[in-house]
Amino acid sequence: MSFPCRRSVSAWTTRSARNRVTEPPRYQLRSGVRLARGKDGRWLVQDKALRRAIRLGDKDARVLRLLSQGRGLRFDQLVGKVGNAAEVRRRLGALARLFVLAGPRSRQRLALQQEAASGVKVGQERTDEAIIFPQGSNPPRHACVATGACCSASFLGPMSEPDRLRVSGLTLGKRSQVSLGSEALESVEFQGQELWGMRRIAGSCVALGDDGLCDVHAEHGYDVKPIPCRQFPLRFHRMPWGLHVSLLLACEGYDRARDAAEPWPSRTAEVRGFVAEGAHVPACALPFEWTAGVPASISDTQTLLGALQADEAADDACPRSWLAAIIDKFERTAIERGEDLQEGPELSGSLRLATARLPGQLRDSTPWFDLAGLTAHQAHLAQRSAMLIARDEPADAERLTRFALGIDALKANLQLQPRGDFGVSGPARRHLLDVVANDLPAQIAIGHLDAGLTNLAVRLRFIEALACALCQAEGKTQVTARHTTLALKVAYRSEPDITALAKSRTEPPS
């Protein structure tokens, strides 16, 4: 990997003409960073180079005011003024992760911002863009088997404007619960935008007939359907090196058609067609970060992703142990990079990864979650489920009920053997391995790398626990593909709840 060389001499050592003199570092504010009072009286960091403004609490602002004076201050001088060494170390660490201190971390962040600005524009589609399909000798594949999973999401969109205009002008047939396309649409407001999708009644699309088939498709053909309907369950994420394709594993077609589906490269033209039509393609945020405050270059991130995917797990491997090995690789790299970017010896070793303790939790039977957090989440699910039932949306209400069952399973720490009481069939184990192989690139694309890996680990653990609970409810002791298929459907239709669940994970000590 193209990492900078280790420092053979401390970064905080200077050489005089006669001998080497070790001088404690002075912590100071980065050039171009300004501290001011906002209109509401709160402190505000104005950072022109990174084009942002950050609100700070009084204690952080006090340390920044001290650092902005002259050549800055040594750690002992800061402690003398603040009066508490642990407090100073904590505040300096937090400010360093915001890139407001002068030092190697901020220099690296500014350099990588230039790389991102001058490199590939990841928000723009290119006709020569590489298409990167799921990797491995046995990757999850997909073919439609008409299960209706794509017709029963909590929101059937977002549509493009051409989609909306085309569907609104249709006349629908006998399968549909409405006669006009304009009556088959609904909108929701999201982050100040009006998003359009297919209307739902009782949790299913109004164009879905009792025979499980789409009326738009039957009456007008496949190409007339909105992009989200045709694209499902394909997901796209644009990286600087290409467009990653993965699957929303809520669709049973990936499981049933795995061996019969066409090889992934045969779908290249289809994917390019979706993108050209205006399919939703979220772009990764640049620069990448290993963890909060530790930036990573485009090439380093691509190399890391390749390294994490390199050791493919065998079909009989333990999915959690495989993910633990992946996180171990990431942590070694991230910690080394974080140490290379420390502003001074007092902050050495202060890096705190979101993945801390995860490999151990993945490998053994340690409970993962805070019981109070799980209970609060369950209460919230019950409220939402009751609201959905009142709105005649039984499918979503049932999904939340099953999610609550998964939380019960986490409370009981239900696990597969050899740690737990439940065996697992080969296809069910393959589903759990697919969660890791399929989701790894997508999780790296959406934020800090360690936060993505944490979210992936929580999803895998939840699916395992829920599958065990479904098996237990039937009085059986071996988890089958039917149990994991249902657990996948619940988890992949509940992305916000999985993210919230990750916040209930037992945190490492400070």
Descriptive account of the structure:
The protein has 510 residues and is an alpha+beta fold. The protein has three domains: 13-102, Outer Surface Protein A, domain 3 (Alpha-Beta Complex), CATH 3.90.930; 131-277, no CATH class; 288-502, no CATH class. The protein is 44% helix and 13% strand. The strands form eight sheets. It has a three-stranded antiparallel β-sheet with strand order 4-5-6. A three-stranded mixed β-sheet has the order 8-14-13. Helix 1 (58-67) packs across helix 3 (85-97), helix 2 (75-82) crosses helix 3 (85-97) and helix 11 runs antiparallel to helix 16. The two termini are 30 Å apart. Mean pLDDT is 88; it is low at 1-21.
In short:
This protein has 510 residues and is an alpha+beta fold.
Regions with little confidence, pLDDT below 50 for 5+ residues: 1-21
Shape: globular
The total of helices stands at: 18
Radius of gyration over all CA atoms, rounded: 26 Å
Arithmetic mean of pLDDT: 88
Q: How many structural domains does the protein architecture include?
A: 3
Q: What is the helix content?
A: 40-55%
Tally of DSSP β-strands? 18
Q: Main beta sheet, described?
A: 3 strands, antiparallel
Strand order of the largest sheet: 4-5-6
Give the N-terminus to C-terminus distance in angstroms.
30 Å
β-strand amount = 5-15%
The chain-level structural class is alpha+beta
